[in-house]
């Protein structure tokens, strides 16, 4: 079993975060890729741009009542109410932008540490896509140790949550270090207490040296 500091969704949809939260609870910190639809190409752009300029109002449009980013092809159905008009989009954008920027800062901080992290990509894709993501994250932070878990086809069967038994098996290979789990749970309690008092939710060495591939998991250990 691999022990990690935290479990983080790398997109491209909501399924990975759903299962990370279900299994690891507060040890799966919130991030920008949790609840939006983010194609692999857009994930690379987030990394290349250091999470800046990815949610500009001029790039947003409404398709069938859902807000889409026409430049980066990301979908933001959880950041806005459904059935918006363009005028309503203008009214809701500032709060959505503040939340987006907050989650970008959190994701940036997670990926800038040394790890190890569990990163989950919850869509069956060809190996070259996950290999590209490994390279992209490694370029973003050459010192980060991480495991990239890619969803197999059987994990996606069923409704949007996929197959729970398959996901349980995938995630059973990993555990959160007890100290980091304790810190995450304590921080969550503090956040909830502060929200309750304030009455609002608030937004608040080179390329890796080794690669191992086992059952859809790609692991990267940084060169020291």
Account of the protein in words:
The protein is an alpha/beta fold and 224 residues long. The protein has a domain at 2-38 and 105-221. Helices cover 40% and strands 17% of the residues. It has six helices and nine strands, in the order ββααββαβαβαβαββ. Strands 2-5-6-9-8 form a five-stranded mixed beta sheet, sandwiched between helices. A two-stranded parallel ribbon has the order 1-7. α4 (127-140) links the parallel β5 (117-121) and β6. The longest helix has 27 residues, at 86-112. It is globular, with a radius of gyration of 18 Å. The model is unreliable at 201-215 (pLDDT under 50).
How large, in whole angstroms, is the Cα Rg? 18 Å
Terminal CA distance: 23 Å
Write down the secondary-structure element order.
Answer: EEHHEEHEHEHEHEE
3D shape: globular
- Whole-number mean pLDDT: 86
Number of strands: 9
In order across it, which strands form the biggest sheet? 2-5-6-9-8
Quick gist of this model?
The chain is of the alpha/beta class. The protein has helices at 15-24, 40-48, 86-112, 127-140, 164-171, 178-198; strands at residues 2-4, 6-9, 60-63, 66-69, 117-121, 146-150, 174-176, 210-214, 217-221.
